[in-house]
Amino acid sequence: MPISPSIRPAALLAALALASLPIGCSPTYVRGNQVEGLDDAAMSTGIDRRDIEQLLHENLTSLMASPVAKAWAHDGSRPTLAIYPLSNQTSEHIDSQLQALLSDIETYLAKASLVTVVSVERQPQMVAEVEKQRGGGFDPDHIAEYNRQLGAKYYLTGKVFTADERTDDERRVQYFMFMQVIEVATSAVAWQNRAAFTKALIQE
Asked: What's phi and psi for 28, nearest 5 deg?
């Protein structure tokens, strides 16, 4: 069959190279919208997007139903709220996922207009301002001082723990996330919630 003059030699060579590859032997990169259910399956015992969505839903549902959120909505004062990192008390490398979760919470609260949210990106600058005379980094014992710099009336923080169990060829990781909103002036816990989920490696 004659080759059309409209087909460039480089394109022809690429097509021939692809045709010569064995079917089913090479990996293929895909986008989530190309494969139905691609985001549903767990691929590790870490935290993925679906887990973040679950944690976000559970925590924000609890927070919005709490007395402190109802008070914010009632008085319309929009107090300043600072968001601090979640402490990773697990052996899993999930710090970036926890940061993504906090950014989602920041976005939601900013859109809800119940509080004035201090940008997560400003946190390192404020911490550096407080700690520059001490020569150290973020210190939870100095949170009250950070909040004075930020002008925050409340701050949101929390911790993540795991219960990790193994057999010879299987593993189960149970995650427990505790989040709380604390009033700066009194250190009183204005809201707290516990969310949990399980990831596992099993043999079928």
From this structure: -130, 130
CA–CA gap between residue 39 and residue 32 (Å, rounded):
7
pLDDT at 38 over 50: yes
Q: Is pLDDT at 176 greater than 60 in this prediction?
A: yes
Q: pLDDT digits over 89-104, tens only?
A: 998 888 889 888 988 9
- Cα separation, 126 vs 138, in Å, equals 10
Model confidence, pTM: 0.74
Is the Cα dihedral 145, 149, 155, 159 positive or negative? negative
The per-residue DSSP string of the chain comes to -PPPTTS-HHHHHHHHHHHHSPTTSS-----GGGSTTTTTS--SSS--HHHHHHHHHHHHHHHHTSHHHHHHHHH----EEEEEEEEE-SSS--HHHHHHHHHHHHHHHHHHTSSEEPPGGGHHHHHHHHHTTTT----GGGHHHHHHHHT-SEEEEEEEEEEEEE-SS-EEEEEEEEEEEEETTT--EEEEEEEEEEEEE---
C-alpha distances in angstroms, 167 versus 160, 170, 200, 203? 23, 5, 11, 11
Share of the chain above pLDDT 90, in %: 36
* Predicted confidence (pLDDT) at residue 191 exceeds the cutoff of 90: yes
Q: Which residues of 18-32 are buried (b: 16+ CB within 10 A; e: fewer)?
A: eeeeeeeeeeeeeee
